[in-house]
């Protein structure tokens, strides 16, 4: 296995990790921004107020994007397992 192949495999793994985590992180960031604007407008400074909507938004995003996330991870793992014989010899 050449160093180029190792770097390419690592790059692909990072890309898949970013693609899988991006929808939930974006949902949490957008929800946090909306709740922060609401808190600033109403002057409610309760820390737990931002936690529950973020969790709900991430759960909804996981339910909606779950099949796509599983497909992306399954395709990467399948390609990885199929390339094992070419990596070894």
Overview of this protein structure:
This protein is mainly alpha-helical and 89 residues long. It is built from three helices and no strands. It is elongated.
Helix content: over 70%
**Largest sheet, strands/sense/barrel:** none
* Basic shape: elongated
The amount of beta strand, in percent, is: under 5%
Through-space gap between termini: 8 Å
Enumerate how many helices there are, as a single number.
3
SSE ordering: HHH
Quaternary structure classification: single chain
- Cα gyration radius (Å): 19 Å
Task: Work out the count of structural domains.
Answer: 1
Query: Structural class, from secondary structure content?
Result: mainly alpha
Q: Name the poorly predicted regions.
A: none
**On the 0-100 scale, what is the average pLDDT?**
92
How many strands in all?
0
Subcellular location: Cell membrane; Bacterial flagellum basal body
Transmembrane segments: 16-39, 51-70
Pfam families: Bac_export_3
InterPro entries: Bac_export_3 (IPR002191), FliQ (IPR006305)
Summarize the structure.
Keywords: Bacterial flagellum, Cell membrane, Cell projection, Cilium, Flagellum, Membrane, Transmembrane, Transmembrane helix. The chain has 89 residues and is an all-alpha fold.
Any key phrases for this structure?
mainly alpha, flagellum, 89 residues, single chain
Summarize the topology.
Elements: H1 3-42, H2 48-82, H3 84-88
Helix pairs in contact: 1-2
Membrane topology: Multi-pass membrane protein
Pfam family, one: Bac_export_3
Family: Belongs to the FliQ/MopD/SpaQ family.
């Amino acid at each position: 296995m050449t160093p180029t192949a190792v770097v390419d495999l690592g790059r692909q793994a990072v890309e898949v990790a970013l693609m899988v985590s991006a929808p939930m992180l974006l949902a949490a960031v957008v929800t946090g921004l909306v709740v922060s604007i609401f808190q600033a407008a109403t002057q409610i400074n309760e820390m737990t107020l931002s936690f529950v909507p973020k969790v709900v938004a991430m759960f909804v995003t996981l339910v909606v994007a779950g099949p796509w996330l599983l497909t992306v991870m399954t395709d990467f793992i399948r390609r990885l397992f199929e390339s094992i014989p070419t990596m070894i010899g």
